[in-house]
Design a protein that fits this description.
The chain contains 15 helices and 12 strands. With 374 residues, the protein is an alpha/beta fold. The chain starts with 15 loop residues before the first strand and ends with a helix.
């Protein structure tokens, strides 16, 4: 058993429920006929390209960034909906999970001295017991529910798959409790309804109930309020905070909205083109951004004050997002970075080398040559 914790830029302790080291998810592109005859090397989409992070038990860990930065892919990698191309995902399992694997004759790979297992190396046929530990709330409350099933059937399905409840009456009691948890009451009025018979906010509540019904330890919430009306968002966020406190949950909360992230998360990682560029406590990162990309995201937040809205604000960013297939050399943000133009002393580093993740202040990490060169 080898201890890999020393490879991380941050400290891992016994309360760390999950950490990643150099996690990668590359999607191969189909080669064209010309590339085939020329025997050109296969090209890849670098969706997640070497990220390292840690999540403490009880955290609401936010992953933020613009569309296409890789945040949803990272969430699905944590869920093991995608098998990562490389890296380590070290997860601290419950005893019940280890016992379930032991019953089917499987010994998961141990990666550190605290007994964490590597989710990357678990074969697909042994993932079912893990689903009781890690669940997901999808972004689309319309497409994530089977339109042919009633709500009771949708919520009963995970119980059947995992063998929970000896009779249908027992399972229906668990389903009713799950509906009560997400405040779809009286439950008798919702049990036999189909998804098209309820509103978007109610559908997302059903999605949350489905994630909760197996009593997981970690929930990946993939932009759970982005498709809802503004009046419903606060209700769903309050519900998620309420069930988190009730069941001692840990969230990975994916969002493109820094205002939502500031409200609900306590830790946050900012992603750009498959990389984490800044990470730390949410208030530190949003109120005192260090990376030029985070500064640009912060500047793009709409200003609610009418007086301030009248003033033209210049967003400190230029150009378009490069292709995830043809990654720029060096720091992948440097073609759009204003600091690259105003700090000539770091230009060579930005063009030629990827910046390491450094701790600028306690618990605040940034990958930028403005700070790494010091």
């Amino acid at each position: 058993m080898s201890d890999v914790v020393s490879k991380l830029p941050f400290v891992v302790d016994k309360n760390t429920i999950l950490y990643g080291i150099d996690v990668r998810m590359l999607f191969p592109l189909r080669r064209t006929l010309t590339e085939f005859f020329k025997r050109s090397p296969r090209r890849y989409v670098h969706a997640v390209d070497g990220v390292s992070f840690k999540i403490q038990e009880g955290d609401i860990f936010g992953i933020a960034g613009e569309s296409g930065c890789g945040k949803t892919t990272l969430g699905k990698v944590i869920m093991r909906l995608y098998k990562p191309t490389g890296g380590i995902l070290a997860y601290s399992p419950r005893k019940e999970l280890l016992e379930a694997w032991r019953e089917i004759g499987y010994q998961p790979p141990i990666v550190d001295n605290d007994g964490r297992i590597d989710l990357v190396k678990i074969p697909g046929r042994y993932l079912r017991p893990l689903r009781r530990e890690i669940q997901i709330v999808f972004q689309d409350p319309y497409g994530s529910l089977n339109p042919r099933h009633t709500l009771s059937r949708i919520l009963e399905e995970p119980l059947i798959i995992h063998g929970i409840g000896e009779t249908r009456e027992e399972r229906m009691e668990i389903v009713a409790k799950a509906l009560e948890d997400v405040k779809l009451v009286p439950v008798e009025e919702f049990m036999d309804r189909y998804p098209h018979m309820i509103s978007g906010g109610q559908r997302q509540r059903v999605g949350i109930a489905r994630a909760l019904i197996l009593r997981p330890r970690l929930i990946v919430a993939d932009e759970p309020v982005s498709m809802l009306d503004a009046s419903i968002r606060a209700e769903i966020l309050e519900l998620m905070l309420e069930v988190k406190a009730r069941y001692n949950l840990t969230y990975v909360f994916i969002t493109h909205d820094l205002a939502v992230a500031r409200y609900i998360t306590n830790k946050i990682a900012i992603m750009y083109l498959g990389k984490i560029v800044e990470m730390g406590e949410t208030l530190k990162v949003i109120d005192n951004p260090l990376h030029p990309y985070t500064v640009a995201l912060r500047a793009a937040i709409p200003e609610p004050d009418p007086e301030n809205r009248r003033r033209m604000r210049e967003i400190p960013i230029k150009g378009e997002v490069p292709s995830a297939v043809n990654i720029p050399p060096g720091c992948r943000f440097h073609p759009r970075c204003v600091a690259y133009d105003t700090h000539p002393e770091i230009r060579r580093f930005c063009r030629e080398m990827e910046p390491p993740m450094v701790e600028v202040e306690p618990g605040h990490y940034v990958a930028c040559w403005l700070y790494a060169k010091r």
